Amino acid sequence: MAPATASGPPEPGGPANQPPALTTGERAEYERLRRHAAIRHRRTRLACSSVLLLSALLLAPLAVVAAWVQDTVSDTDRYVETVAPLASEPSVQETVTDRLTNRVVAQVDVRAVTDSLADILRDAGAPPRVVNGAESLEAPLHEAVRSVVERTVSRVVTSDAFRQAWESANRRSHAAVVTMLTGDGTGAVRAEGGTVQLDVGEVVDQVRERLVDAGFDKAAAIPDTDRTVTLFETEQLGKAQDTMRLLDVVGVWLPLMTAVLAALAVWTAPAHRVMLMITGAGVGVMTVVLLVALAVARRVYLDSVPPATLPPDAAAAIYDTFVRFLRDSTRTLLVVSVITALVAYLYGPGRPARTVRTTAQRGTTAAGRALRRAGVRTGSTGHWLADHQAWTVGGVFVAGALALVLWNHPTVGAVVLVIGVVLAVLVGLAVLAAAAPRGREESGP
Predict the structure, then answer these.
(1) What is the DSSP pairing of strand 228-233 with strand 189-192?
(2) Which class for 90: exposed (0-12), middle (13-18), buried (19 or more C-beta within 10 A)?
(3) What is the pLDDT of residue 316?
C-alpha cells in the first residue's frame, strides 16, 4: 500500500516559492533590457546635466557683472575705494585744472585793463608809440594771468586736501552711484538726458577761495552754474540704466543661482569628474568672453566721448578706474576655473595625470621614510591619515574653497595664496601618513 501523501500548504522557502529558473534566451533578453534601461537612464542624466551646465555658463558673465554692481552700490567703502583713485589720476587732474582755469580766466577782462592803461597814457600825453605798446600788452598779460591762475588751481587739484575733499564728498553722496545707474535723485554723479555728469562744485568753491586769497578778486565772480564735468555721453544711457536696475535686483541671487546650477550639472552627470573638468573649462571660456567684452566696451566708450568733452586719456582713466574691480573679479574667477579643471584632470586616468600622482606619491613616501629613519613616528595619527586619505584630501579642498568664499573680494594673489596653502597641507598630511610605522617596524624587534 502506497504511503499517504502529505497534505497542507508548502513549506515557506520551499520549491513551490522559488521563482522559476530563466532559460538562456530569457536571461539574454533580460540582460539586453537591463543594458538598454541603463543606457537610457545615462542619456537622460547626461541631457539634464548638459542643460544645467549650459544655463550656468550663459549666466556666469551676467552673474559676475551683477555681483559687481550690487557690491559697488550697497557698500559705501567699496564705492569710495572705486572712485578715490580718480582724484590722483594725472590725466583727470589736468582736465579739471584746465576746465577751472578757463572759467577763471574768462572772468578776467584783460582787454579792458589794457584799454584803460592806454587811455591813461594817452590822457597823460604819452607818445603814440607808448600808447600802442600798452595796447599790445593784451596777449602777454592774458598769458601771465592764465599762468598764475593755472599754477594756483593745479596746487589745489594736486594737493592732499583735494583728495580728501574728493573722498569725503563721494562718501557723503554715495547715493550718487544709485543715481548714475537708475537715473533718479540727485548727487555728485547724476544722469541727465543722454549724459552722466560729475558735480565738481566743492572743488570750484575751494579754487575760488584760494584765488581770492591770492589776490584775484575777479575769481569771486566764478558762476555757480556750469559746475559739472561730463563723464559719459551716449544715446543708449536709458537702456543701460534699465539693465543696471535689473542687475542690481538680481545681484545677490544670480551668482548663487549660477553656482547651484553648476553644482547640479556636476552632480547629475554620469561622470562627475569629467563634468567638473568641463564646467571649469567652460566657466574659464566665459570669463575670457567677459574680459573681451570689457575691452570692446572700453573702445566703444572712448569713441563715443568727443575730445572736446573729455580728453581721451582722461576718459580712458575714468573707464579703467570704474571697472577695475569688475576686471579683477573676472580674472580671479578665470584663475579659479582653470585650477578647478586642472585638479579634475589630475584625478583622471590620463597618462600625464598618473605621472603627476605617481611622482607626488613617491616624493611624499620618500619624505615619510626619511622621517622614520630619523626617529620620527606618527603612530596612530599617521595610520588614520593613511586609512582616510580620501576624506582628508576632500576636507582640505573644501576648507580651501570655503576660505575663498569667505574672503572679502579675493584677488588672483589671494587665490594663489590659498592654493599654495592647500598644496602645502596636502603634502604635509601625505608625509605624516607615510611616516607611520609599517609591518615589523610597528611591532618592534
Answers:
(1) unpaired
(2) exposed
(3) 87
